[in-house]
TrEMBL record:
Top-level taxon in the UniProt lineage: Bacteria
Domain GGDEF: 211-344
Upper lineage: Bacteria, Pseudomonadati, Thermodesulfobacteriota, Desulfuromonadia, Geobacterales
Protein name: diguanylate cyclase
Ranges where the record places region Disordered: 1-30
Protein's organism: Geomonas limicola
First-level EC class: transferase
One BP annotation, GO: cell adhesion involved in single-species biofilm formation
Any Pfam family hit: GGDEF
GO cellular component: plasma membrane
EC number, as in UniProt: 2.7.7.65
Reactions accelerated catalytically: 2 GTP = 3',3'-c-di-GMP + 2 diphosphate
SMART domains the record matches: GGDEF
GO MF annotations, alphabetized: diguanylate cyclase activity
Amino acid sequence: MRVVKAVGRTEPGEERRSVHRGQSTHGRGGVLPQRLREARFTVEFCRAVYAHLDPAEVCATAAALLQEHFEYGLAIFSFAPESDLDCLAFVPTRRPSGKTELQCLVLDRLHAAQVQGGASRNASGVLGAEVSFGLPGVPGELRLFQVAETFHPLSRSFLGGVAECLSAALIKARDHNRLRELALRDAMTGLFNRRAFRELLSIEAGRRGAGPLSVLMIDIDNFKAINDRFGHPAGDEVIMAVGRAIGAECRGGDLAARYGGEEFAVLLPGAEAANAAGVAERIRNRIAGLDFSFVYPDFTVTGSLGVACRRDPNGSVDELLREADDALYVAKRSGKNRVSVHEAALHDFSTLNH
């Protein structure tokens, strides 16, 4: 469980949209105003949550609005594993200034179940009631614990309207994220594609105070011969296996991409040339050790790698990629299955032979 951010604020003394203690509980005079408030809230709620394309922002907006409508002590958004959504908890916190902020926590599903279980055991008496919103389309559930008392029961149409709108907003945001992810990923390897790599490289290169930035260009040796001899299905297996091998050698902040055809690229933020060359050598060894005996006995694959490092913060991204590509060309021309570091990155480090 980790803290993410504080979201949503309500001012002290701000008018609550829920029904307060002391209002009449009998007749149309008490119920009708509540229904009108519920209808206005539902319209505002739907408009607000549907404006977001990030599921976490949808949940944060929903939690903030519901906190204004009826105060609660804890809100938990729990989702089934197939939903691809994070389970979130929102906890209202009163600041010294008098403002109420919602602290957002990302929960794994075990913690979400444990927190809900503990809150349910303490959701009666002076701590208030519990309100649940089923989200079948997601699938998931929103549960509000320790809800402040209102003397009018919440209508089924109100709970159903809020749940339906929240479900629709979450599904839209989730589907948008999935489509965006597909647009940035190579379908065969699951790595980033060329377009995403270029965009991420530009972002990383533009960061203020960024340290050294290294790029690896990787090419599968003799790939055309592999396709010609064993067929394109075997070639696809090789590309997927090499993609997995490259990904396995990347650190948490590194970015691996299929750059096109049998060519791959890796972005290594903060890596000096010597460190980048070490990563490249590990990738080369891992590729050379891949087992393709299921394609043909003694069938092996190798890769050539070029390394470039940008030490000047004002250096261009295009120049860095060109240097990595030039280094790759040197590795190919020098016999393949090796790592070459561009001379501008490391003057006394030219080629690592296996």
